[in-house]
Specification:
Number of helices: 26
Shape: globular
Structural class: alpha/beta
CATH class of the largest domain: Alpha Beta
CATH architecture of the largest domain: 3-Layer(aba) Sandwich
Helix content: 40-55%
Bound molecules: adenosine-5'-diphosphate, magnesium ion, zinc ion
Distance between the termini: 40 Å
Amino acid sequence: MKTENAKDIRIEPQSLQQPLAELFGFHSFRPHQEDIVRAVLAGGDAFAVMPTGGGKSLCYQLPAYIMDGVCVVVSPLISLMKDQVDAACANGLRAATLNSTTTPSERTEISAALRGGELDLLYVSPERFNSEGFCDWIKRLHISFFAIDEAHCISEWGHDFRPDYLALSRIVDEFPGIPVAAFTATATPRVSEEIVLRLGLRKPHLVRASFNRPNLFYRVAPKDNLDRQLVDFLRGHEDESGIIYRTTRKNVEATAEMLCGKGINALAYHAGLPDETRAEVQDAFRRDECQVIVATIAFGMGIDKSNVRFVVHGDLPKNIEGYYQETGRAGRDGEAAECALFFGRQDIVQLSRFASCVEDENAREVAMQQLQRMINFSQHDGCRRVALLGYFGEEFPVENCGSCDFCMGEVEREDATVPAQKALSAVVRTGGRFGAGHITDILTGANTERIRQQGHDQLPTYGVGTDKDKSYWRRVMDSLLAQGLTRIQDPQYPTHSITEEGWKVLRGEREVEMLKQAPVSKKGRRGKASADGPYSIGLFTKLRELRTDLARAGHVPPYVIFSDRTLHDMARHFPDTPDKLLEMNGVGKRKLAVYGTRFLAAIKEYISSNPHESCV
Ligand code: ADP
Ligand code: MG
Ligand code: ZN
């Protein structure tokens, strides 16, 4: 707990620019932040759905700072609370946390601080909130308002229901005069309604922000040789933090090992590892000590790291919600970041198999439909952003988003009508009873035992595809399946049979196109940064080293000290006085006081040893 920082810059609520700059070092609000802050300051309830990285914390931290009393923040992840408190304190807020890891002596200290009115923010876990006597205890305090983070946890329709959150519906009854502000990144309109109802919010100020993440670059490509594709991709992202998602634990481990073999600093993470190992891996990532995490989707919830520069899916995710959430972990700081998805036929087969094993009939149907929409997304012939936002019911009115592979003209397609007819013909002639591998063998005229046994070397389609190699035919088979021209009836036995649409191709009534194998550009692709413009890589590297040293000494993750965005700003403008440093995005009064001298010295030193470089 840190409470030494006196409130020396309290201001009138009408001018929010000043505390925004002095406290956080930001020079403008992100969309909706200001009206939420104002709604809370006016004493009303609020409910905001804003994407990850949208800047929800500021929406309650700023009013918590301005208002008298303490803001009680309910947040579900204990692993995150410490970072949240550290980050708040680094900006000069007075914050503490009460959860199951708090020791009795810490508790005594916090109680005293609360009684003395010395805290702006008190983070509590829902379990703690729910514990006996807690409400009675905080009733004696002067509470400014309640902030409920990850509010979707109260919804049984949401994907992350926590029974302890239900207790939060007592707040409005037990604390009638006190405003409640709730936040989440994931809520369909239906879940939103449920949250508002369950919390009993009173005419809340409602915000539903756009789900667009302009700084993310989206790329979708067929899987060809995943190992090579990943290594190529990482070459464009040297020294940058990122996550590679894979579906199975086995693949997670194999990929991590492969990358380590190539000299890449990667660690594996999945639910099968011991708790300790997982905590260590997560810590190493937070501290920038490990560059790449290869993980199942078990990884990410407890990570607030703002400088994740890329998220790669090495397999098709099972639904678009998941894909959106996972990619959303990239670029929270608003700086450019890249999301790449590699998918192949094998993924569709495997995921269909998983989905078909769901016992409950309704749930199975939902899983199948969600998978189909994910497949459609991967095959979508247009802007990725439009497709993604469309899924969430949002229109994206711009013609060219400027940061996806499609809009940047990197997606090439080729006509595949004749190859598709050849492959479909082989599918039909073998009675829809064989897998893609065998069909490929027939087309390429392979001399396998199975082919001889089945007499498939006598088929008219045998060897009609020798002009192309096996990997080409596999891509054709993938495209047929993904475009719904073939289907797999029983995922347990992935045999391909023709569909109605497929017949149209065979009858020459429609054409088929498929995606060309797009090479992943070596340089690494970026979304549009909010603060565009080049910066000195040399100085950025130096400043990042300094940040790592300071983080280690202070036992906090590096991004709590300064975000990548802040360091980029410094490496762009070469500030040489405290006042100029204050102008950098993310440098507030407190950080200037604590870190200013060290960073100014590092910049000065860099300039003197690189005199040819100055403002870029
Ligand atoms: P969320 O909780 O919505 O996912 P956070 O509150 O963690 O997002 O904020 C994400 C990042 O955006 C943080 O690094 C934060 O410092 C930064 N940020 C928030 N508001 C602004 C702003 N107005 N200008 C610049 N950066 C901001
Ligand atoms: Mg948050
Ligand atoms: Zn686009």
